[in-house]
Write the C-alpha cells for this entry.
Amino acid sequence: MFPDRFNLADYLLHHNLEAGRGDKVALRWRDEEHTYAQLADASSRLASAFVDLGLRQEERVLLALSDRPEFSHAWFATLEAGGVFAMVNPLLKEEDYAYYLEYTRARIAVVDAELAPMFERLLEKSRHLIAVVVAGGDRSDERPELHGRHQYAMADLVAEAPVGAGRAETHKHDICGWLFTSGSTGRPKAAVHLHEDFAFNIERYAKGVLGIREDDVTAGVPKLFFGYATGTNLMFPFAVGATTVLFSGRSTPEKIFDVVERHRPTILTSVPTMIGKMLALEESGGARDLSSLRLVLSAGEKLPEALQRQWLDRCGVEILDGIGSAELFHIYISNRPGAVRPGSLGQAVPGYDCRVVDETGFELPAGETGRLHVRGESAALCYWQAHEKSKETFRGDLVVTGDLFRMDEDGYFFYEGRADELLKVGGKFVAPHEVEECLLSHEAVREAAVVGWRDDEGLVKPRAFVVPVPGQPGDDAFAESLQEYVRTKLSPHKYPRVVTFVDDLPKNDRGKVDRRALSQI
C-alpha cells in the first residue's frame, strides 16, 4: 500500500507543500497562526539540530509538551531524523519522568519551559539522556530560561539549524513511535509501531470512515500526548491539508465551548465524561453555539446511550462512538456518519477484521458475548520489554484484546466490559459495565462507576460510586432507591451492595475512570 522508502513526516506534513498548501493555515494556537510552510521549515531545521546534538536513527525522543506549535515541530522533527517519538503527559511528577527516561532510554527530551529545572536534575542522573530541548512560554518564538549546559532553547535551534541536514532515509517498516498504554494494572508499557502503521489507519479510518477533508477544522478535548488525540488533532488534519486548533492548559467544558465558538471547528474530538459535563453546563448556563460542528468523535470509554441521545437532541450533531487502542494506534470499530446506532460502538473499520470469540478462539454467533480479536495492518510489533505479554497479545497482525463484546446481526458491536474487570458474585459473573449502564439510565445519576468490594466475610460484591445530578441529595434514601432500581432492571445478584456518592470520579491522564483508585477507597 505504501512504498518501501517512506517517512511519516513526508506523508503527513511535507506533502502539503507539494500540493500547493504552503501558505494555508495548518495550526492555530492562542492568537498565532502557523502555515504548513512554516511548520515544515521549523520541523526540518529542528531535525537537523537533533542530529547535530547526537540523535541517531531509531533512538527515542521523549516529548513532555503541552498542546502548542512546538509539539508539531518536535514530533515531525523526530520522524524526519529517523528517531522514535515517545509522548508523555507534561503534568507528571519527577519520579514518573525518571521512569520514562529509563524505560525509553531517550537521548533527547523536549519539554515545556516549566519542566526545565526538573529535567536538568534528571539529566544529571540519566544514563542515556544527552540533551534537553525547551519550548518557549506564552509565544512560540519566546526564548525560555535554561537551567544547565545541556539544555537548549527550541527557538534558538530552529533559528540556527539548516533545513534538510537531518533528513534520514527511512523504510516503511522502520520503528517510528511508541504509544503508551494507560497503565491501569501497573506501570505504562509501550506498544512499538512502524511508520506504515499510522498511515494505514489514517487511510482506512480518517479518510475512509470520517471522510475528513481539506476544509475541515479540528479541535479536541484530549491532549496530543494521548495517541487518540495525536491522530484526530494532528495526523488526520495534516494528512488532508486541513486546519487544527490547539490550546494549552486543562480541558474544561467552559474552555471547549469557548474554543468551538471562537474557532468554529467542524470536527470535535471528545470523551464521554466531557460530553456529559458540556450538557450539564448548558442546563445550568444556557445554550451555546455548536453550529459549526459536523461530527463529534468519542472514544476512551463507551459512551452511554442516554448521553448520546441527549447530545443529539440538544445540537443535532452525531457522535461517532468507537473503540481504538495503543496496540492498533487508533479506532478500528466505529459508528459511521449517517448510520449511528446508539448504544453500539459501530461496525469494523474497513481493512480491520474484528471478531468475537470464545476462550478457544472460536468465533461466536451474533448475540453472544466473548473476547474481541482484531486483525489489521496497524498492529504494533510488541510491547517494549514485555515479551510474555507481547506473545499473549500480538500474533502477527492479530491483536487479542481484553475487551468483551457481542455483535448483532448487522455487524454492530456492543461493548460488554473488560475481561479482567469481571466480578464473580455468588458464583456468577457480573460485568461492572452492565451495572454502570443501568445506573446511568436513572434520571438522577450523572456519572457512575462500579468496582469489586469485599464484605466482612471477604466475599466480592459490586460497589457503585455515583455522581448525582445537581440538586439530588446523596443520602441513604437515594442509595436504597438506586439499589432497588438495579434489582428491577437486572438479575438480583448484580445490584450494588454499597452505593457511595462522590462529587466527581477520579480519571487517569487519558480521561478514563481510574478504577484502581476507586478500588482503594
